[in-house]
Amino acid sequence: MMTDYPALVLSTFVFAAMAGPLTASLAATILPELTPHEGRGRIAAVFGLITVVFGMGSGGTLVALVTDQVLHDETKLPLSVVLVASPAFLVAMVLAILALPRVRSLRAKVAALTGEA
Questions:
Q1: Dist. CA 5–CA 66, nearest whole Å
Q2: Residue among 76, 64, 88, 96 at smallest CA distance from 15
């Protein structure tokens, strides 16, 4: 086995497999809904850029740094993925929960302005 913590690695992977696509799809549908028609392309591009730069760009680097500088053992790569991904998902979840009231308020304002129910 590649890790001493298979249950931790598996549970984090399952959580990431469910939470990642869920948050990405929610953001991809909410952001254009709250943006004026002429700005939807730009907001989608900015969202994609931020996702790629922070998610894909820094994720691998942080995992490598944790593996080399904190754990000092290349065989503990799965654990370093968990140590990087778990706090990131927790922060994302807290930020999403904190943003919910504002998103609901914005959706209500957009609905009132456009005459939708």
A1: 16
A2: 88
Q: Name the nearest CA neighbour of 82 among 96, 63, 103, 60.
A: 63
Distance, in Å, from the CA atom of 56 to the CA atom of 74, rounded to the nearest integer, reads 20
pTM: 0.67
Compute the residue count for the chain: 117
What is the residue-level pLDDT of the chain in tens, covering all 117 positions? 466 778 887 887 787 777 777 777 777 788 888 888 888 889 888 988 888 888 788 888 999 999 999 999 998 888 898 888 888 888 888 888 888 888 888 888 888 888 765
Give the Cβ contact number of residue 76 at 10 Å: 19
d(CA 37, CA 113): 13
Among candidate residues 67, 85, 95, 63, the one with its CA nearest the CA of residue 10 = 85
Q: Which amino acid is at 12?
A: T
